[in-house]
Each structure stands twice: as C-alpha cells, then as structure tokens.
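Hi V.,

You were right to ask for the full record rather than a summary. Here it is.
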Amino acid sequence: MTSSNLQTRLQKSLGCSRQFLLSGLEEGEKRELSEKIVGLGAVYVQSETYKPACTHLICGRLSRSEKFLCACAQGRWVLHPNYINDSAKEGKWLPEENYEWVNFSDGETREMGETARRWRFHVEAFLTLPFSGWKVAVIVRGSRKSSIYTRLLSCGGAEVYKLTLPVGNKSRVANLLTYVFVGERNVSEAQHLIEFGIMCLRPEFIGDYILKVL
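Predicted structure:
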C-alpha cells in the first residue's frame, strides 16, 4: 500500500476530507491558492492559528511556526504551493509525495522538510502521536504564547492540565504530570515545584522534540 493510500485511510479513520491550511504566503498568493483549493472541491480553512481538522498544510516557506510544528505533530502533509497549482492545471488532486517540502529545499530548510516527512511516516505506520501518554501543564506568561504551546501539545496527543500556582499538594502533581513547561519569566513562581523534584522544562523543548527526536 502506498503512503498516499495510507494517508487516505488515516484521514477516513479521523472522519476527514481534504482540508487545507496556508502558511508563509502573501495575501495575493493566499487568495489565488484558496480559490484553486475550493475549485477542486476541497475545504480552505482560513485561520491564523493551526486547526487540527486540516489534512494538508501548504507552506510558502518553512519556519518553526505553530502551523508547521502542529502539522508535523499530527503527521499531516506539509507541501509546497506547486501542489495546488499543478493539481489545478490537471483538474484533479495529484499524488502528494513529489510536493513534500523535502523535494524543494536544502540546508536547514531541507532538514525541516525531512522532519515533516518522518513524522508523517511515523503517524501513518504506528497511528500514534509524538506526545502520546504525556500529561502536562503549561505555565507561561501571556495568553497567546500559552495557547500556542497548549495547541501544539494537544495536537501531539498530550493531555494538558490547568495548574494554579502555588501548588499545595505537590505530591499529587508529581504523580500525575509527566512534565510542567515553565516560561523563563515564570521560573521563580515554579521554584517550589523544581525544588520538589517535579520535571520542569522550558517550553522550547516542545518544538525541539518535534524537530530533533526522529
């Protein structure tokens, strides 16, 4: 069975049709590509943040963005815009493999493209996500940053708990949570957890795990 068929099977198991998110593109490019997506009968998801229902992420460039990391965490297709343009010319959806970013990049960008493909293979083969089994909390100042880290962890299969500081029952937290992600500006607030031996990590570890583990 080809990887395209595996991805189709996975999408069906998740109750998904083709749903496209766009990232790293100018407004004119977004408008043009979105019209082609809809013209081919798929769904264009217009959002500045990642949406778990998407099946394909079209990137104008690769960067350590929320959309890219979440797509990797879910094993989604991460494709070059040529996929949309060439499919529109043919009047049908073409096989995705030739349009993965690993085929359009070199250096650090190629490494990121390879990361996306490796996670796609992993999720297709094992039907497990990178953070499966993790129970975590996020302590980061600023609701926007906290929401981004929470979405990334959730997309990767982690259970995210709300933790209010200071913690009274530290033993319960230690027994429940795998990690507590603590922002640089929140270290002093979480010092009592660190001293108790609870595994507290910088939130940058989440993206590093996606980019470097496989």
